[in-house]
Design a protein that fits this description.
Layout (H helix, E strand, L loop, with lengths): L1 E6 L16 E5 L4 E4 L6 H8 L4 H4 L2 E3 L5 H4 L2 H5 L8 E4 L7 E4 L2 E4 L6 H6 L4 E4 L3 E5 L2 E4 L15 E6 L5 E6 L7 E6 L2 E6 L6 H12 L3 E7 L7 H12 L5 E5 L4 H10 L3 E3 L5 E3 L8
Parallel strand pairs: 3-4, 4-5, 5-8, 14-15, 15-16, 16-17
Antiparallel strand pairs: 1-2, 1-18, 2-3, 6-7, 6-11, 9-10, 10-13, 11-12, 13-14
Length: 288
């Protein structure tokens, strides 16, 4: 298994790759190739080509972690290239419109497509209804996370509209991100958790995966949305990560500079999982 970060907020060693606010992973299992999130734009396609990867020929399945623009924005560009559109795997409720609230205003931050748009291009949309589902051999979609370890979710900044019988917005509710999907890779080196933004709470997600699979994680890669965590909440997460000294922590995207600096200081398994990074999961040592 190999996990390649096609795009992330930060550039890496390959200086011709473009970075942007967003994230996209390409997972190759030897038999299948999965694209997990698509970044904010179609830049994942040119980045992949510069890494020697032809996405239009190699993607067997697309999985979208949740319905925000910075995780879904490259999908339509990809579908415009592929001769046979791959299945699109999402969580239940993915297509419900998502907004960010700031004072009296709300801004739409969802994807630039509807379910009908995808199906009109020949894609088969799969909404995951079960808590854990094997998408391809050795790769699992996980949703419906336990919510007991992180007391500060949900974030009141993220909201969903509720509609009246006439189709008008009647009220706003805080988004609990029931549509969020994480991927778990059952690799030769142990369980690897891939997360998009961890809106249900990264500790909740880690606890859920370790409980359902009955063994500890070897690695966590992706965005943890600790950019808005400070004080006691951040400290609780840091202590939980410190208590897992063998875990590899490839932090990205919405983790935030403060949290990443603290994780680097306190957790020996930390690395900045930036644009172009590849993790080889069949190496003698995780990361190889």
């Amino acid at each position: 298994m190999t996990v390649t970060t096609l795009i992330e907020n930060s550039p890496g060693a390959h200086r011709t790759l473009e970075a942007e606010h967003g994230i996209s992973f390409l997972i190759r299992t030897g038999e299948k190739t999965i694209l997990f999130d698509t970044g904010q734009t179609g830049k994942i396609i040119s980045n992949a080509h510069r890494l020697g990867i032809a996405l239009e020929e190699q993607v067997d399945q697309v999985v979208l972690s949740h319905g925000h623009y910075d995780h879904t924005g490259g999908l339509i560009s990809l579908l415009g290239l592929v001769p046979t559109p791959p299945p699109i795997h999402v969580g239940a409720g993915f297509f419900r419109p998502k907004y960010s609230r700031s004072g009296p205003t709300c801004t739409y931050i969802g994807p630039d497509f509807t379910r009908a748009d995808l199906e009109s291009r020949g894609s088969r949309v799969q909404e995951q209804s079960s808590d854990t589902l094997e998408i391809v051999p050795g790769v699992y979609g996980v949703t419906n996370f336990d919510r007991t370890l992180d007391p500060d979710w949900p974030n009141p900044r993220f909201v969903l509209p509720e509609f009246s019988s006439t189709g008008e917005i009647s009220s706003w509710v805080v988004d609990s991100f029931d549509d969020e999907v994480a991927l778990v890779l059952d690799s030769p080196q142990g369980l690897v958790l891939l997360v998009g933004c961890s809106h249900p709470g990264i500790l909740n997600m880690i606890y859920t995966v370790e409980t359902r699979f009955g063994k500890p994680l070897a690695a966590v890669l992706g965005g943890t949305h600790l950019v808005e965590a400070h004080g006691p909440r951040l400290e609780k997460v840091l202590q939980a990560l410190e208590a897992r000294p063998s875990i590899l922590l490839g932090m990205s995207h919405c983790t935030g500079k403060e949290a990443m600096a603290e994780i680097e200081k306190r957790c020996s398994g930390y690395y900045h999982n930036c644009t172009g990074t590849s993790l080889f999961l069949n190496s003698p040592n995780l990361g190889g």
